[in-house]
Every structure is written in C-alpha cells, then in structure tokens.
Write a structure and sequence with these properties.
- The protein has 98 residues and is mainly alpha-helical.
- Helices cover 51% and strands 0% of the residues.
- The longest helix is centred in the N-terminal third of the chain and has 30 residues.
Length: 98
C-alpha cells in the first residue's frame, strides 16, 4: 500500500493572518464553552442530595439532558443567532471544534 502525505506551507498576508486569528479565537471560545457546559453538568451530579458542598453549588435542573457531542452541535445554529460573530467561521469548523 502506497501512503502519500503532502504538506503545503501557506503564506498568508497581514489581512489573512488577522482573519485566521479571529477564527482561532472564536473556535477557542466555542471549545471552552462546550467544555465548561459539560464539566458543570457532571459536577452538578457528583454529590448526594444530603451531602452537597456548602461552598459551591452547581444549579442545573435535574431534568436537564446530558450535553452530548450531538446536542452541543445541534445548539450551534441557536448560538449563531444570539452571537453573530460565530457565523464568520464555517459551520463544519465549529462542529469539529466541539
């Protein structure tokens, strides 16, 4: 089996570099939001009802569904309506970021 991998170097100009950095920043924000959503959901279900911490509570309703990969992907169109700057990055890139 012949395996060929090609590597291409790009040389973006200043405007393209700025745009790429904006996209990376948007992807970073989406990734961090999705991760925080997942961690908060898990943390809200760690302790027993009679043994929850007095210092920190996660207020997430008990009937809130698990923020799975597909659920978070399906919420992207709603997020794009609320945060228009998400629309600048291609949808498949944001889906992959999650």
């Amino acid at each position: 089996m012949l395996n060929m991998n090609y590597t291409y170097r790009i040389y973006p100009n200043a405007a393209q570099q700025t745009k790429l950095l904006e996209w990376l920043e948007t992807c970073r924000g989406v990734y961090n939001y999705a991760l925080r959503e997942l961690k908060d959901w898990i943390a809200s279900r760690k302790c027993s009802v009679d043994r929850c911490s007095l210092e920190k509570e996660y207020i997430i309703p008990a009937d809130e569904p698990f923020p799975s990969y597909h659920r978070q992907q399906n919420n992207l169109p709603k997020a794009k309506k609320q945060l228009p700057h998400l629309g600048q990055v291609h949808s498949q890139v944001l889906q992959t970021t999650i």
